[in-house]
Amino acid sequence: MDMNADIVLRLPLIPGYNDSPEELILLRDFLKKHMGSYRYAEIMPYHNLGVGKSRVLGLKTDDNIPSGKEFIEYWTKILRESGAEVRVSGD
Question: What would the pLDDT profile of 52-73 be if each residue is shown by its tens digit?
C-alpha cells in the first residue's frame, strides 16, 4: 500500500472459522482505515467444491461447513459500513 500498488483485497470468508462478528468488525475497520490505498474489497465465499477431491486424496475434511453464499448479504452489509466498495467473487 505504501508503494501505491494497484491492490484488490480478496477476503476469503469461511462460515464458523473467520466470520465472527468480531472478525468482521476488524475487517470493516481495516477497510475504513486504508480507504484509498486499494481499489476494492472482494469477498470470496466458501464453497465445498474441493471436499470430494480431499476425500479421494485421504485428507481430512469438515463436511459441516455451510456454503458461504448463505452469508453474503450479512458479510457485505457489515463490510460496506466502512464506505468501501465491496464485491463478491463469482457475481
Answer: 676 788 777 666 666 677 889 9
| Contact of 42 with 13, CB cutoff 8 Å | no
Residue partners of 54: CB distance under 8 A and separation at least 6: 60, 61
**86-88 and 8-13 as β-strands: parallel, antiparallel, unpaired?**
unpaired
Mind spelling out the 3-state secondary structure of the chain? CCCCCCCEEEEEECCCCCCCHHHHHHHHHHHHHCCCCCCEEEEEECCCCCHHHHHHCCCCCCCCCCCHHHHHHHHHHHHHCCCCCEEECCC
Distance from the Cα of residue 55 to its chain's centroid:
25
Global pTM?
Answer: 0.79
